[in-house]
Amino acid sequence: MTTKEKITEEALTLFAEKGYKGTSVKNIADAVGIKDASLYNHFKSKQEIFDSIVELISKHISELSQTLGVPQYDKPDIPLSEFFIKLDLEGLKKITRESFLFYLTDSYISRFWRIAHMEQYVNPEIYAMFRKIFMEDAISYQEKLFMEMMEQGVFYPGDARATAISFYSPIYLLLSMYSNQPERKEEALEMLDRQVEEFFRIYRKKD
Q1: Is 156 strand, coil or helix?
Q2: What is the arithmetic mean of pLDDT over 186-192?
Q3: Is it the case that residue 122 has pLDDT exceeding 80?
């Protein structure tokens, strides 16, 4: 790990423990084991360190899509529906489970999640970044997917955005409920499976 990477790593931990405002550049430098002046050779400010964390989180999420083989929203190799139409209920549950476990147990995501919830009332800019990544982008992706599924007659016609919110809201709730209790993941996964089954039953047309 390079010094710059270690700075980002230690800053992420400190922000999650003490909050953004409660963490100084000196705190970060001390955690890395370098002098304040040396830290400025890598980052101009605490804000720049945080911005690098946001970039890291976004990259991490994109890598998840590649790992699962799921088309990305901004540059899909194929239409989103072309991939998801092939999935039966068990296939959809598998992908949803793997995505859920990633968000629940990944060390970067879990720390960033905690930062956002600590800062939402004192630092609107930080919460706005969290909102975009974990709410708006997720719902927009699913809205586009469900619109395509409706157009192809796989889903019943309706409001694609409302359908996306219906799918994602319970998942977000489960992440919120279990984000600090990853050891209870099996309980969370059981509830997740039931949610996916119910969504599949309501929205997907019978073959």
Answers
A1: coil
A2: 95
A3: yes
